[in-house]
Design a protein that fits this description.
493 residues, two-stranded parallel ribbon, alpha+beta, C8orf32 fold, 8 strands
């Protein structure tokens, strides 16, 4: 079982089988960051070559399988016993092809008996007989190396197998089947009654096959275990193992080194995302700071960092804690994109404006906002902040205007709106407040006029209209009322 680790945006991760790293919602209440230290054994730390001997391969496989000392002892005993038989075969068998086929059969006669997709460790294979494509291929490769056969590992997105390179040809070895040597060829099966029985393992078309170096191939054990640990949210085990794999592959090709580091970074991202989703965004940032310090970073990890930083600031601002959000922003700017910095700055300032004006009376709030407008800083002059200030300013103007109207002081209300329109001349909201106040004034005067006119108190009606027009001369309502009155009284001028 092999595959590509996928990660989609912070906080939304792909769930899946194989080697897809997944996310779950629960997390232990007691937080302990996974170790990022170098923990490679002395044996593997001292390896100098890209190509490993059979012994180096088995020892590396056991380390990545996280075998106990007792398990290692049992595995080595069994491996060396089979290795001895393989080397004896190599002394007499001249055909590399036949020798390779015999090694595969020998594995199944003495070690392997049950395929399980997720059983990737050496202890599962040697001590229980359960295996998957990775563990079976590593064992075959080690035994083939012991026999001086030229064997390499092959990886597809969801599978691993081996190839045997002879002088004349290259032969695929499907290690998950005892008859998988050179898939597609007919193999005669052993029979107790001497009757001929045959098996054919279909030749697979490995569309995306890629040859892997020895270090990369054996490290697939660690990659698979990391996936399993991740699925269980066991990052305490997953991250150190991924670190060990990355350190081990420092002796591999640049491409394979980068792949291992990318897998580590993605695992660290998953843990950070899990922390963030569980309400521990600041812990998530602290964790990623540690990752950057000890293990470096890539573009994907930086994106995760930026996403979580924004979420952290948003959480704090939603609680009104803009000062804390500002401090977090300031201390982490070096890892943030300029676009994200601008977004968070806007969020912080917008929250500050809202929180500082919240306890103030409308008059006080308007004075505060005017003072803010006069500050000649890049943040305040930012168009988005200007728009935020305008929105708040309009809100408090509306409060003042409405208070005046509630008490029937419509002209005062309109005057307040007109005065504040000078601050934001393009504000349609403040302009509409003025127009509505004047309309409400006209309606109020009209109603008073109508009451007097209906009582045939035309002098009082005229007095009401003229006074109203003196305050609101542009009112079409009051002008029409005056014309109507003049028609009634016959005193049109």
């Amino acid at each position: 079982m092999t595959g590509k680790i996928n990660f989609a945006k912070i906080l939304i991760l792909l769930l899946g089988a194989s080697l897809l790293y997944s996310q779950k919602q629960n997390i232990n209440s007691k937080l302990t960051y996974p170790s990022l230290d170098k923990t490679l054994s002395e044996t593997n730390s001292n390896l100098q070559t890209k190509n490993l001997s059979d012994t180096e391969l088995i020892h590396s496989a056991m380390e990545f399988s996280e075998c106990s000392p007792e398990e290692e002892k049992q595995i080595l005993k069994k491996y060396n016993s089979i290795k001895t038989r393989v080397m004896k075969l190599a002394e007499t068998e001249r055909s590399e092809e036949k020798l390779g086929e015999q090694i595969l059969l020998l594995m199944y006669e003495n070690i392997l008996n049950q395929y399980k997709r997720n059983e990737t460790t050496m202890q599962a294979a040697f001590l229980n007989g359960t295996y998957n494509c990775v563990s079976a291929s590593v064992i075959f490769m080690a035994l083939a190396k012991a026999a001086n056969l030229n064997t390499t590992g092959q990886i597809t997105p969801n599978h691993a197998f081996c190839t045997l390179k002879t002088e004349n040809k290259t032969i695929d070895v499907e290690t998950t089947n005892p008859y998988g040597f050179d898939p597609g060829t007919k193999k005669q099966l052993p029979s107790a009654n001497n009757s001929a029985k045959y098996a054919v393992v279909p030749a697979r078309y490995y569309r995306a096959r890629k040859e892997a170096g020895d270090r990369m191939f054996v490290s697939l054990i660690a990659k698979n275990l990391c996936s399993t640990y991740n699925d269980k949210n066991n990052f305490t085990k997953a991250v150190p193992l991924a670190c060990k794999r990355a350190d081990f592959l420092n002796g591999a090709s640049d491409q394979e080194q980068n792949a291992a580091h990318d897998d580590l970074y993605l695992l660290c991202s998953n843990y950070a995302a899990l922390l963030s989703r569980s309400g521990q965004s600041r812990n998530a940032l602290d964790w990623l700071d540690t990752v950057f310090e000890k293990r470096g970073y890539n573009a994907s990890l930086l994106k995760t960092y930026n996403d979580i930083a924004y979420n952290t600031a948003a959480e704090l601002c939603n609680k009104g804690q803009y000062k804390t959000a500002a401090l977090i922003l300031e201390s982490r700017k070096s890892y943030l994109t300029s676009a994200n910095i601008n977004e968070i700055e806007h969020m912080v300032i917008a929250t500050e404006l809202n929180e500082e004006t919240k306890p103030l009376a409308a008059d006080e709030a308007l004075v505060y906002l005017k003072n803010k407008l006069s500050e000649n800083t890049a943040q305040i002059q930012n168009p988005k902040i200007q728009k935020t200030i305008q929105s708040l300013y309009e809100y408090y103007v509306q409060i003042k205007v409405n208070d005046e109207q509630k008490n029937g002081r419509y002209i005062n209300a309109a005057q307040i709106a007109r005065e504040n329109l000078k601050i934001f001349p393009q504000s349609s909201i403040i302009k509409n407040l003025s127009e509505q106040a004047l309309k409400n004034h006209a309606i109020s005067v009209h109603n008073n006029f109508a009451e007097s006119a209906n009582k045939k108190d035309y002098e009082q009606a005229r007095k009401i209209l003229l006074e109203g027009l003196s305050q609101n001369p542009a009112s079409s309502i009051l002008k029409n009322d005056l014309r109507t009155l003049e028609q009634i009284t016959g005193s049109a001028r």
